[in-house]
Design a protein that fits this description.
Layout (H helix, E strand, L loop, with lengths): L7 E7 L4 E4 L5 E14 L6 E13 H10 L5 E14 L5 E16 L1 H13 L22
Parallel strand pairs: 4-6
Antiparallel strand pairs: 1-3, 1-5, 2-3, 3-4, 5-6
Length: about 150
């Protein structure tokens, strides 16, 4: 096999809200950090250890606008993308390096807005009547019409 593969799949929580940057011509990018956790038990101390890895994510154009609209700090997301390293010179001449995940696909797993809506619905809902045919209230619940 002569080909190569640069593919990343992550599930994690946003470390901050999406930061947008707009360019001339209408293009834009969104940047945010994603935390992934590994939990394990230290065999010598039996202590539960949580190790967090931070990833710098970049989304572009329409995807960036969708992420900015619906995501906020703490939300859980699944992403697919590729690793991209880049470097640049600061104003004082220092060379900086970074490694980013260029996001190509994403799925929102849970958002704070969903969680808040679910809490509001759970507290404001009255008990639901599961009998959908009010005229046949005398039938047993497990009685099927066929």
């Amino acid at each position: 096999m002569n080909g190569t593969l640069n593919k990343v799949m992550l599930i994690g929580h946003l470390g901050d809200d999406v930061k947008m940057h707009y360019f001339d011509g209408g293009n834009c990018i969104g940047r945010f950090s994603l935390a992934t956790n590994e939990i394990y038990i230290n065999k010598t101390t039996n202590e539960k250890i949580t190790s967090t890895e931070w990833h710098n994510l970049v989304v572009r154009n329409k995807a960036a606008e969708i992420c900015e609209k619906y995501l906020s700090k703490g939300d859980k997301i699944y992403i697919e993308g590729r690793i991209k390293s880049r470097q640049w010179q600061t104003e004082d001449g220092t060379t900086k390096h970074t490694t980013e995940i260029q996001v190509t696909e994403f799925t929102f797993l849970s958002t704070k807005k969903d969680t808040e809506n679910n809490k509001q619905n759970a507290t404001s809902e009255s008990p639901k009547n599961t009998n959908f045919d009010p005229e046949n209230n005398d039938l047993p619940i497990n009685d099927l019409p066929f």
